[in-house]
């Protein structure tokens, strides 16, 4: 599990401490190391909905990655894959595509919620199977990566 210890997450200027969990120094080092391997910079950490989040960037583009809870091995394995996907997406080369025909014309159904504070839609869950415009059919799962590669 991600351990709770007295090392607090860095707070943004003017932010108030909420008593939320903090990341251990070890987990912060692991996050920095794995993000660096994927070519990402870690810009900070925060707590969102009770979950630790790493703010990462590459070439001026920013994203957030939720840090999973679990054993050290589980956290490393999940973060490694997630950082690679985020790096590809921030690079602009990766996208969702159909594993059958290779089309990038993929449509997803999702449930979202409006967040008044951020004035943005927040994804709650993906629904059903995605639709491929190239196949004109639903597909069990869309692949994510560089087009034409799994």
Outline of the structure:
The protein is an alpha+beta fold and 150 residues long. The protein contains two helices and eight strands, in the order αβββαβββββ.
Q: Could you walk me through the main structural features you see in this protein, from its secondary elements to its overall organization?
A:
There is one protein chain. The protein has 150 residues and is of the alpha+beta class. It has helices at residues 25-37, 72-91; strands spanning 41-48, 51-58, 61-66, 94-97, 106-115, 120-132, 137-138, 143-146. A 3-stranded antiparallel beta sheet has the order 1-2-3, covered by helices on one side. A hairpin with a 2-residue loop joins strand 1 and strand 2. It starts with 24 loop residues before the first helix and ends with a strand.
List the helices and strands and how they pair.
Layout (H helix, E strand, L loop, with lengths): L24 H13 L3 E8 L2 E8 L2 E6 L5 H20 L2 E4 L8 E10 L4 E13 L4 E2 L4 E4 L4
Antiparallel strand pairs: 1-2, 2-3, 4-8, 5-6, 6-7
Helix pairs in contact: 1-2
Structural class: alpha+beta
- Unreliable segments (pLDDT under 50, ≥5 consecutive)? 1-16
Number of strands: 8
The major sheet is characterized as: 3 strands, antiparallel
C-alpha Rg (nearest Å): 18 Å
Reading the helices and strands in chain order gives HEEEHEEEEE
Q: How many H/I helices?
A: 2
Helical residues, percent: 10-25%
Per CATH, the class of the largest domain reads Alpha Beta
Q: Which strand order spans the largest sheet, edge to edge or round the barrel?
A: 1-2-3
CATH topology of the largest domain: Metal Transport, Frataxin, Chain A
| Global outline | globular
User: How far apart, in Å, are the first and last alpha carbons?
Assistant: 31 Å
Strand content: 35-45%
Report the CATH architecture of the largest domain: 2-Layer Sandwich
What value does the average pLDDT take? 78
The number of domains is: 2
